[in-house]
Design brief:
heterodimer; A: 148 residues; mainly beta; Immunoglobulin-like; five-stranded mixed sheet; four-stranded antiparallel sheet; elongated; B: 92 residues; three-stranded antiparallel sheet; two-stranded antiparallel sheet; 6 strands; 0% helix; 39% strand; rod-shaped
Chain lengths: 148, 92
């Protein structure tokens, strides 16, 4: 279990999904054609709630489409990387700017409770929803004790 | 405005002011105590912008894709300067 800098409502120790700390968040190298040197990288806001089957993670990724999103689970770490294409056509003169364009990156450490094989995700209107089902509890196995 | 459905978006343009109103709904049927983390916001919002002169208000169009709203404000054709004829007055 890792800790997180975000304030928790119900105590960090209760949370099977936690935000990966510092070094784990180092961005993977992006291909040069989508990542100019000074391209911004944002941490998207997320919600996590408990459902009957496990946990649901929701992330705001405006400008990210199914084709530009990479979601992977590796070594207990769930990583999302959403690439955002520029909305401003080349050669256009920008008159007003309030938000910076950039990609989204965030990773989470999954607990052993999560059934990694059954993680599923949907992307709709710039919102990603990842379902993290609880792994079924293994039934107790009776061990036969043999005498000599 | 990720997660806003286009039904919950309202755009109006009138008298040189463009008004955007929208509403993002909370996940349905999830009680507050089920949240383990809550960083996203929902609710209603509104914003108004002054539209520059020379925008053809009847031709303003909008599209909403991947949570990003794009509004096109076409320029009105430049009005040609009108010559005003000066006629000889009758006065003294």
């Amino acid at each position: 279990m890792t800790t997180d800098t975000h304030p928790e409502k119900n105590g960090a120790s209760q949370i099977p999904v936690t935000h990966a700390p510092g070094p784990a968040e180092a961005p993977p190298p992006l291909p040069p054609e989508v990542a100019p040197a000074e391209r911004a990288l944002f941490t998207p806001p997320i919600d996590i709630y408990e459902s009957d089957e496990g946990l649901v993670l929701i992330a705001d990724l405006p400008g990210v489409s199914v084709g530009s999103l990479e979601l992977q689970v590796q070594n207990n770490k769930l990583t999302l990387l959403g690439r955002v294409a520029s909305q401003v056509p080349a050669g256009a003169r920008q008159l007003h700017k309030e938000y910076e364009e950039g990609d989204f990156l965030r990773s989470f450490i999954l607990s052993e409770d999560v059934d990694h094989e059954r993680v599923s995700a949907r992307l709709n209107n710039g919102v990603l929803e990842v379902v993290l089902p609880r792994a079924p509890k293994s039934a107790p196995r009776r061990i036969q004790v043999n005498g000599d | 405005m990720p997660g806003t459905s286009s039904d919950n978006l309202e755009l109006t343009v009138s008298g040189g002011v463009l008004t955007l109103k929208g509403k993002r709904l909370a996940p349905a049927g999830i009680s507050e105590d089920r949240f383990r983390r809550h960083e996203r916001m929902w609710g209603a919002w509104e914003r108004s912008l002054n539209v520059p002169e020379r925008v053809e208000e009847e031709k303003v169009s909008a599209e909403f894709n991947d949570g990003i709203l794009k509004i096109r404000l076409p320029k009105a054709p430049e009005t040609k300067p009108r010559q005003i004829q000066v006629v000889q007055g009758n006065g003294p």
